[in-house]
Design goal:
single chain; 476 residues; alpha/beta; Threonyl-tRNA Synthetase, Chain A, domain 2; 2 domains; 19% strand; binds adenosine-5'-triphosphate; binds magnesium ion; transmembrane; ATP-binding
């Protein structure tokens, strides 16, 4: 078939099928017009798309054309003067309506530039059917020390997917920490990017509430700038932290928040200091009962508290679910430093078993009847503290290993941002807590009382002392 090989007069080598696109001849002016229109379209797109650059550029060019150099320079000076006046005159509104929105736009640009790389390397980009879908960066809201990035997830993703790669994202965006929280809609996740550290500075002792609010004891500061209030009613508190992590400051912050109650007799604090009084000794007048050397005395204290708890539970049976403290039936708070000394390291087996038995009764029955335990320990493992789960409220200060975090705060909490093992030694008193109703752990710093401040507090608020069974004079 020779004809197949001849196309528009050209001879073509033999092939199964030969195809050639037809020539369409168009005049030069049509082509030129088309190219010009296309270029113009692109220009308009760029001008509109990057309005935040083009609009000011045009404006400044116009100022320059109209007034010379004085135009743009004068305008910048005017804006700076107005902003400075506003900032000094009314700082909160300046931050809220002036500074933070501008900063948000700028930061959004920064985050967008890294967004694709961040999503791909964190494996949050989803590939299927030969194309890739990225989570969408919607909005950025800046605030004091934290940027909240609103992200629309790819269908099928959950906030925990972001929580798991939070550390990677923190490094990518160059921030201290990233936390992922569910957004207002099911397909939205809120990434909290923490920049500065509001907890870097020591937290001074907080004012003593005249009547302690047992559901919200002021003990420290939260990462988001609010105060951290510990709910004591209905719970038992365990403080876990490596040596030097600031367990003492948690104990003293709690004692301070209850101090006015000690004076009025509404609260009794019983102190147990197995380290020989090193930690609690300075403030001994704060404690109605105090044991420091004698393990048998400590055991008796715990047994006594357990008996009180059982008696109250028996009396309150069927009447109420939460005991209300009165001077006749005060709130009893057992403060135990280095609990492991009583539950694990004690060599006297019999005594250890008695302590364990009394403690488990106290922990399980005391919380509704106003007999509470605030205990500190270094090692959260079950071998050391068999009844860890009887402490509903747990505070994780600096911990030695990543694996301990979930033991203390609960399954998955390290993934959600509780990096207790990363707290530097230079930040004692910093820790993570789980706040009721918030799925992500909150970073907090407890107030620090120096030895002198503890003594002064004991002078002002302390009462009777019973040390190792021996009754001493009241301090005040
Ligand atoms: N909230 C805090 N703010 C600032 N500094 C603190 C705070 N808590 C503790 N520190 C500092 O850290 C040091 C160690 O604290 P602390 O003795 O409370 O630790 P600890 O956890 O009880 O350690 P250990 O297990 O050795 O008893 C303190 O001497 C103090 O200087
Ligand atoms: Mg200590």
């Amino acid at each position: 078939m020779p004809l197949v090989n001849v196309i528009r007069g050209d001879r073509i080598d033999s092939a199964p099928i030969n195809v050639r696109t037809p020539f369409i001849r168009i005049p030069m002016w049509v082509a030129l017009t088309w190219w010009t229109l296309k270029a113009l379209g692109r220009l308009v797109f760029v001008v509109v798309r990057f309005w935040y650059v083009t609009v000011p550029a045009v404006f400044f060019a116009w100022l320059y054309g109209r007034f010379g150099w004085a135009g743009p320079v004068g305008f910048v000076a005017l804006v700076a003067a107005v902003a400075a006046g506003w900032a000094f005159g009314h700082r909160p509104s300046f931050l809220r309506f002036g500074w933070w929105p501008v900063l948000s736009c700028y930061r959004r640009m920064l985050y967008r530039r890294k967004w694709m790389a961040a999503m791909v390397t964190a494996k949050l980009a989803v590939s299927f059917d030969s194309h890739t879908v990225l989570p969408v960066l919607r909005r950025v809201r800046c605030g004091g020390g934290v940027d909240v990035v609103v992200v629309r997830m790819v269908t099928g993703q959950i906030p925990d997917d972001f929580a798991k790669v939070a550390e990677r994202l923190a490094h990518t965006f160059g921030v201290r920490q990233v936390k992922a929280a569910p957004g207002p809609r099911p397909d939205v996740v809120l990434l909290h990017l923490f920049r500065g550290d509001p907890l870097a500075k020591l937290v001074r002792p907080l004012p003593v509430p005249a009547v302690p609010e047992f559901t919200a004891l002021p003990v420290g500061k939260r990462e988001d700038g609010d105060g951290y209030e510990l709910p004591l009613f209905g719970t038992q508190v365990l403080v876990v932290g490596a040596t030097g992590s600031g367990k003492g400051s948690v104990i003293w912050s709690v004692v301070r928040s209850l101090a006015a109650g000690v004076t009025s007799g509404l609260v009794q604090i019983w102190g147990l200091d197995p380290k020989g009084g090193m930690e609690l000794g300075m403030g001994a007048p704060m404690f109605t009962r105090f044991a420091r050397k004698d393990y048998a005395a400590m055991c008796e204290l715990i047994e006594e508290a357990a008996t009180v708890a059982k008696d109250r539970a028996g009396k309150l049976y069927g009447r109420t679910r939460q005991h209300t403290p009165t001077p006749d039936e005060p709130l009893i708070v057992l403060v135990i430093d280095e609990l492991a000394n009583l539950t694990a390291y004690l060599t006297d087996r019999q005594l250890k078993d008695r302590i364990k038995a009394a403690l488990s009764i106290l922990l399980s029955q005391g919380r509704a009847v106003g007999v509470h335990v605030v205990a500190a320990i270094q090692d959260p493992r079950k071998e050391v503290l068999p009844f860890r789960d009887l402490f509903p409220t747990r505070i994780g200060l600096r911990l030695a290993e990543a694996a301990q975090v979930d033991l203390v705060l609960g399954e998955g909490m390290r993934d959600r941002g509780a990096l207790c093992d990363r707290i530097p030694q230079s930040l004692p008193g910093v820790g993570f807590v789980v706040i009721d109703g918030d799925p992500t752990p909150m970073r907090v710093r407890f107030s620090y009382l120096s030895d002198d401040e503890i003594r002064a507090m004991a002078q002002t608020y302390g009462r009777l002392r019973v040390i190792d069974g021996e009754i001493l004079e009241g301090a005040a």
